[in-house]
Amino acid sequence: MLNDxxxxxxxxxxxxxxxxLYKSEDSICTYCCYxxxxxxxxxxxxxxxxKIFWGRINIHSASAYYSFGKGxxxxxxxxxxxxxxxxxxxxxxxxxxGYDLRKSESFKSVETIIPVPLHPKRQKKRGYNQSEFFAxxxxxxxKTDTNFTALNRAYHSETQTRKSRFSxxxxxxxxxxxxxxxxxxxxxxxxxxxxxxxxxTLEACAQTLLQIPDVKISIATIAYASN
Length: 227
Description:
alpha/beta, Rossmann fold, two-stranded antiparallel ribbon, 7 strands
């Protein structure tokens, strides 16, 4: 009864459309769950994200849950997740996407999920790494492990916003380090982030992880922003 009373005064609303949520809904209403622009890239091994890495790095599979449109609901979701403290958005979307990925031939063998790390200074300022919540949600429904400590960002890079593809690569080429490779040897790793545009940051992370013997790297993000 107390929860019902509190919800009358402070109703839980959908972070996508702003409408009130029902008890069974979490962060995103059922209508938006079906209406947000899903890519279905996990069903196509030659999707636009996979093609980003062709000839650049050996990626097993790559996908994103949503298409990112400027001014659209997905951009609003990402903004709320990254800058407004709405951490549960990442976890909720991760759970949704995990159900799809665990049924995919390309992703069902994933054993460990690693989020792209933030530099400690940036994480301290923001208070959290949004990709860790996405990773945790994925792991819950994919029934797999997470590792938030094996990969770190050794240098504080400039923001990637408004950089060219080459400038993005220069900005992140050597900033990631492996802290503990032993638990990852021979595993299928899913590397995750919130948004992919040029793929420079994910490529730099994957290059670092591929130094570990016998690993296989796949990539998944919340959204894909085409150039």
